[in-house]
Write a structure and sequence with these properties.
Cleaves peptide bonds on the C-terminal side of prolyl residues within peptides that are up to approximately 30 amino acids long. Has an absolute requirement for an X-Pro bond in the trans configuration immediately preceding the Pro-Y scissible bond. It is a single chain. By secondary structure, the chain is an alpha+beta fold. It has a domain at 435-712: Alpha/Beta hydrolase fold, catalytic domain (Rossmann fold), CATH 3.40.50.1820. An eight-stranded mixed beta sheet has the order 32-33-35-34-36-37-38-39, sandwiched between helices. The longest helix has 18 residues, at 59-76. The chain starts with a helix and ends with a helix.
């Protein structure tokens, strides 16, 4: 641990930042060929000169990727403190990390990473016996790019099936093993996608996938998801389609899960990322027919548990913030639902464990947990360890103890052992990390967006921060798909804050922090609200002297990459650095790749109608890069194997920026090879990537050395 005198030096140095003027690094951009490609939408011609970059299998695209990376890394190699950042990231990352345990059969299973292992290792122990390695994904491939993406046990714990991803792909392979001996018991299953594995007894399991698309499996369109049943001991070619195989059952997302008592199979079917139909199948009756619980996609509804034929569901049907209802399998449709845990002003998620419901509410993006009986009566409020995010409240019905985790932006995640009968808990595991949370603080502010809407934002920084407009700041956002950004610790953000940096996260419309209405307010023809919220957050930070344009970076990934792309093209004067990651950047064609058509609930498509086309074209980042404009220093990041948001989005945006940028700000693209959308990325690659991102950011804020050299000197000494 650092001593108090050194801490004083650290705080002092952070307050004395300077930004020396220096000569920019000269970038030699590759020439990107332009091809006359034109689409016509409702009588309007739209040029797409970089369409050829969509072909991820062509030698021309492969050559372009190599040339761009050569240019980008030629620039990054010249940043004088890039290696210092990498070393500090490695130093801080190098602590043991332990996941919350779960009980399966006679064993307790948990994940652990000794510090810098590329992938977490699954361990187990029997009773008080010694722990042993159960699965080590680091042995799956030499470079650590094959990751474990799912693990499911039979109810008695005797068998297990797990999913692996190669190179970050969403296409998975499934492997079945005898849990006791860990020996593989049958051939590997292939082409599983967007799926969990759910066992039916010890006989087999349910999984979902698409038919492989024509052409590239990385970018080809997939829009008919199917639920299969795999019987152990039979070839995958004989797997039975349970749902999704007909034109009437065609949906883009289909999933099946078996109830804990193994009485029912519940099937969810959706055409987009929001709203689903719901069905059940009685597994105890071999002649049972599919029963409809919900026949429309007007809500997000799922079964969370059952007691015999009594079903407990969570839904936002006529309840934008969600509620728990109860019904019977004999009459499960909405007219027979009865409220059990009513809707409140705060958004609800529910876990089950030990015979209780655990209702987690988001109160301005902060966790509050209430424990209920299955009769709907409140048992207690769980007094959490602090202000932040709690997760993992759930376990098996017969278990009276389970584990939950707690974190916030400046507190590394710890796990706690919880007693369901008393409501008491004790700390199970706390990380031993070279980072003192007491040196940092978070504050929540509420600022006003363009249309008068109040938006919350959590701002985290080192104590003693001086609001002088000169603090390097990352403004991070998402704003879509009903996803909520709640406080969570990040090693990379800790390194940023050690350097005197501010990390600010607004809860934009389009997210789920305030329920369905907040989500809808950032979709389709209201998507501009999300960008306005983000712009207003930046203006708040500048107006209140947290930072200034010269020290502001905006960052986001996936839908957040769209957010950054739209913001930097609409307001290039607002920030010094833009960091769009794996972004959805071509809004006229996103729905033609992989499962992109399922995002239409949030975005609409250019084929819907003329109004929707014009709206999308009006903010699509690829189509709004203007000649003669000085854009911020930009580092686009993507993976060459991203089959969720295909890298062509980033390729085309980079080409547009490089052609039209005015001034000396660099516009670079960093393309990770043998990598996907982000999940399962090896630790070594993540560290290298963030050393590059932070190095690029600080350098383009004017630094020729890191703001806080005291931290670096300390860990070197």
């Amino acid at each position: 641990m650092r001593n108090q005198n050194l801490l004083a030096v650290v705080v002092l140095c952070a307050a004395c930042q300077t930004t020396p003027k220096k000569e920019p690094i000269v970038v030699n951009y590759p020439t990107t060929q332009k091809v006359d490609t034109v689409d016509t939408y409702f009588g309007t011609e739209v040029k797409d000169p970089y369409r050829w970059l969509e072909d991820d299998r062509s030698p021309e695209t492969e050559a372009w990727v190599k040339q761009q990376n050569a240019s980008t890394f030629g620039y990054l190699d010249k940043i004088p403190f890039r290696e210092d950042l990498k070393n500090r990231l490695e130093k801080l990352w190098n602590y043991e990390k332990v996941g919350s345990p779960v009980n399966e059969g006679a064993y307790t299973y948990f994940t652990k990473n000794n510090g810098l292992q590329n992938q977490n290792v699954v361990y187990r122990k029997k009773g008080d016996g010694p722990e042993e390695v159960f699965l080590d994904p680091n042995t799956f491939s030499e470079d650590g790019t094959t990751s474990l993406m799912g693990l499911s046990f039979t109810k008695d714990g005797s068998k297990a099936a797990y999913l692996i991803s190669e190179g970050g792909s969403d296409w998975r392979k499934g492997i079945v093993i005898d849990a006791e001996s860990r020996e593989v018991v049958e051939d590997t299953l292939v082409d599983i996608k967007f799926s969990d594995l759910s066992w039916k007894g010890n006989e087999g399991f349910f999984y979902s996938s698409y038919d492989k698309p024509d052409g590239s499996e990385l970018s080809g369109k997939t829009d008919q998801h199917k639920l299969y049943y795999h019987a152990l001991g039979t070839p995958q070619s004989e797997d039975k389609i349970i749902f999704g195989g007909t034109a009437e059952e065609k949906h883009r997302y289909v999933g099946g899960y078996v109830s804990e008592d193994e009485k029912y199979l519940f099937i969810s079917a959706a055409v987009s990322t929001s709203g689903n139909k719901l069905f059940l199948l009685d597994l105890t009756d071999p002649n049972a027919k599919l029963v409809t619980i919900l026949g429309d996609t007007d809500s997000d509804t799922s079964v969370i548990d059952n007691e015999g034929s009594k079903l407990f569901l969570i839904t936002n049907r006529k309840a934008p913030n969600k509620k728990v209802v109860v019904t019977d399998a004999s009459n499960p449709t909405p007219e027979h639902w009865t409220d059990l845990i009513p809707e409140t002003e705060n958004v609800l998620t529910v876990g089950t464990g030990g015979g209780y419901f655990f209702a987690e509410y988001m109160v301005d993006a902060i966790s509050k947990v209430l424990q209920y009986g299955y009769d709907g009566n409140l048992v207690r409020e769980v007094n959490l360890p602090g202000v932040g995010s709690a997760s993992g409240f759930g376990g098996k019905k017969e278990e009276k103890e389970f584990y939950f985790s707690f974190t916030n932006y400046n507190t590394p995640g710890s796990s706690y052992k919880f007693n369901v009968e008393t409501g008491e808990y004790e700390q199970y595991w706390k990380p031993q990390i070279d980072f003192n949370p007491e040196d940092y603080e978070s504050e929540q502010v509420f600022y006003t967006s363009k249309d008068g809407t109040k938006v919350p934002m959590i701002i985290t920084y080192k104590k003693g921060l001086e609001r002088n407009g000169k603090n390097p700041t990352i403004l991070y956002g998402y704003g879509g798909f009903n996803i909520s950004l709640t406080p969570a610790f990040s090693i990379v953000n800790a390194v940023w804050m050690e350097q005197g940096g501010i990390y600010a996260v607004p809860n934009l419309r389009g997210g789920g922090e305030y329920g369905k209405e907040w989500h809808i307010a950032g979709t389709k023809l209201q998507k501009q609200n999300v960008f306005d919220d983000f712009i207003a957050a930046a203006e708040y930070l500048i107006d209140n002297q947290y930072t200034s344009k010269a020290y502001l970076a905006v960052r986001g990934g996936s839908n957040g990459g769209l957010l950054v792309g739209a913001t930097m093209t609409q307001r290039p004067d607002l920030m010094q650095v833009a960091l769009p990651a794996v972004g959805v950047l071509d809004m006229l064609r996103y729905h033609t790749f992989t499962a992109g058509a399922g995002w239409a609930y949030d975005y609409g498509t250019s084929e819907d109608n003329e109004e929707m086309f014009n709206y999308l074209k009006g903010y699509s980042p690829v189509h709004n890069v203007k000649e003669g404009t000085e854009y911020p220093a930009t580092l686009i990041t993507t993976g060459d194997h991203d089959d969720r948001v295909v890298p062509a989005h980033s390729f085309k945006f980079a080409a547009e920026l490089q052609e039209k940028q005015t001034g000396t700000n660099p516009t670079l693209i960093r393309i990770e090879t043998n990598a996907g959308h982000g999940a399962g990325t090896p630790v070594s690659k993540t560290i290298e990537q963030y050393a590059d991102i932070f190095g690029f950011t600080f350098y383009n804020m004017g630094y020729d050395q890191l703001p806080n050299q005291a931290v670096l000197k300390e860990f070197k000494d």
